[in-house]
Amino acid sequence: MAQAKTAWITGAASGFGLLTAAKLAQSGYVIVATTRQADARREQIIQFISHYTQEATVHVWELDVRHEEQAQLIAQQIIDLYGKIDIVINNAGYAAGGYAEDVPMQVWRDQFDTNVFGAVQVTKAAIPYMRKARSGCIIQISSISGRMGFPGLGPYVASKFALEGFSEALRLEMAPYGVDVVLVEPASYRTNIWDSSLAQLHTPDDSPNHYYVDKVLASIQHNGATAPLPDPVVNLIVRIAHTAGGKRKLRYPIGKGARTVLLSRMLLPWKAFERMLWKVIGVDIRRNRHGS
Q1: Residue 292 pLDDT > 90, yes or no?
Q2: Domains in the chain, ordered, with CATH?
Q3: In terms of pTM, does the model score above 0.85?
Q4: Residues assigned a catalytic role
């Protein structure tokens, strides 16, 4: 009888992470679901997964991805219990918002600590074991914001661009060892990232950017309210996990208009793309540029 595969999922208390844990458990994976509030969320996570399958082996362990030693300890615990790490899904993250001049430097640092350095630390904890086994897959939950900028989301966009660059370099490094690195790039889906993160937009009362921030926030809120459920993204992650090693692509954009927007970003002159983006947001940038 083949040994069950293991999947380590960060940010597993909600959204893509929780749903992915349930779907992979349903397909026979041993689940290591990590979250910063493991004691408070353990029963909730296990109960949620039990709606999908009663047969799963699920560990809910505490991990703040900003702490390197915690990530290394969890990787070692998985090896001690199961001898291998088959899949790592770097899902932990949040979105910091505001115009660049209004966002305090500590917020920029915090954004990178979680979205970038957190993913790097978890990945670094797992890859020595994957390299020795000459198999495995690291799935980075990125965003189409990692391929194109958006006003008012500078810290988040920058962190996802950094994650994309790191992952592209890492894929080349790990290819000789039979380890795949994959980027999943969702457009807008109905998760709590925008409600929980953008509720704390960094815009001081005396900011000169209120008009534009309000327009951007309204656009984001509209997209969030009309976004589809996250199931297609979760199903894609599960499909990638089940794909044979060496056959996985680097990038998987997914969501309404994702491929069209990314193709437009690549093919259109920047000025044309810029006007198109501002039109979607509801601002005539040419008129506002002259103070009209």
Answers
A1: no
A2: 6-256 (3.40.50.720), 258-292 (no CATH)
A3: yes
A4: 156
